[in-house]
Amino acid sequence: MEKVLTRNIGPEQTPTDLTAYEANGGYQGLRKALRELSPKDCQTVISDSNLRGRGGAGFPTGMKWSFVPMGDSCTPGHKYLVCNADEMEPGAFKDRLLMECDPHQLIEGMILAAYTIGADVSYVFIRGEYVVAIERLRGALAECYASGLLGENILGSGFSLEMHVHPSAGRYICGEETALINALEGKRANPRAKPPFPQVSGLWGRPTIVNNVETLCNIPHIIDRGADWYKTLGRGEDSGTKMFGVSGRVKNPGCWELPMGTPIREILEVYAGGMQDGLQLRGFLPGGGSTDFLVPEHLDLAMDYNVIGKAGSRMGTGTLIILDDQTCPVGMVLNLIRFFAHESCGFCTPCREGLPWTRQVLQDIEDGRGQLEDLETLAYQVKYIGAMGNTHCALAPGAMEPLQSALKYFRDDFDRHISGGCCPYESHKVHQHQHQHQQIGTGA
Amino acid sequence: MNDAQMIQTDLGTVLTREEIRQIDTELAHVPYKAGAAIDALKIVQTQRGWVSDESLRAIAKHLEMSAEELDGVATFYNLIYRRPVGEKVILFCDSVSCWICGCDGIKAKISAKLGVDYGETTTDNQYTLLPVPCLGACDRAPVMMVGDDLITHLDEAKIDQLFSDVTVEDSASEGEQ
Q1: Digit-coded pLDDT (tens) for A54-70
Q2: Is it true that domain A241-324 has CATH number 3.10.20.600?
Q3: Are A321 and B100 a contacting pair at CB < 8 A?
Q4: ipTM at complex level
Q5: Nearest CA in chain B to A326
Q6: Which domain holds residue B33?
């Protein structure tokens, strides 16, 4: 397969500087756009390519851009392009690789996106813990400013753009685009009510596009080589390539660029090397911590947005989290719910109060204090917290996805916890128990 | 804020010239001063290690916002520290992939080795242990950050080696004896 997003990323994962990036065709897409394409032409190419957002929601990128008011329909003032580099979805680790190893690819994608929507200011909103990526992006930005690729009158085209790397002060909810905008404005990162959508009224009340890192990294290649070429890259119904990852107890966890529509079995068995010795596959979250479990019967499905959607889950970030047969499904869901309860922004009641309640019910079951009625409570929570429209944003409904599918596929495990009065999977807890004994001084 | 507090603000910790210079640089990018609240908090935290009540009031005054409003921002973000932290903060990933790969045992090992639980600082003031949302290195789980360094493929031997210079009094067992 032709490598597109990772063509500059070798096994040693050394960063690509401006010289190396340009030597391998870098900034050709930008030069082409500034020379011969209007912003409208660029938006059309991206729409025609069927590129869908790689941050998790899968919204068509060209369509998102088309909502930005252009020309006379836009009131005078700034427009903003923001890269969402706040990778914090449990189990997602693809954007880190793209930023650490090929920062110029992201920058070129951002300049092209900004050109298309007429933005004059852009931000890379990046989680503060990504220190290496922050440093390399800042280095790459300096190279760009020094070479006329950023700043006033880029490459003599008359188009100007300033770009800033903005390290975040934390919190998962900043990945939600309107929460991210509030964080950029120096506020608490509560999501905003929509409408108005950020494309019309975003940062400082101005038209703003927020795109994921991987989405933006696709842009230079599509502009350079065209929508038709891009559509040939996928193996199924979706266009392009995708960063797929596998974590959990497999032989070779990692992240690979593969065609859209690659079967799950191939990702898991060929690239991730299959399960570690002595372990069997129980299930997996196909696209990060807020996607529904799928099970071995789904292994031959293609990783395409609609295919995974029809199977009852979401492709999300495309990073699979593997549940093996010696890891407790209840414990895994408890870990996820604990995460989401902790990361709730606290703005709306179903999320702020509901998720800790769910966590408590699951903790009771996991600790062997569960009762049969607890399963009804969990089903009730899935129904009411999980319903879009009952909460202010998608965090709590996302949190309910692994729970609702665990209740469906691993119901026996919940029952065994309740009837047996303890967790049947003790392997994870040995160390924890030893530690507790040490702490209370009763250890050997 | 009452009068007594106001006087304390004026007489207490003030922003240094360097802090003000850096904050004012950020003010150039925002339409009103409160828009630089998070940047200002980070600037002061970089200089002082954490954001005390006095620092908070000084920043709020400079940004022409109330201390309460700024505290609402400061306490929202997990990388703004409103209590003192050790020289290095350990950001321990306890999210799902690290959990599957046995991070609970590693956390117990760190707690035993350093004598701290989440939110606590070692007695020698070297390390503060905090949980962190998924660090985005799930293919190398379990992972954590110590200061700016990402440490991957954690096991008990690695913890022993990393913190070999730390000796902690075991207050729990001393109490038993």
Answers
A1: 998 899 999 999 999 99
A2: yes
A3: yes
A4: 0.93
A5: B100
A6: 3-74
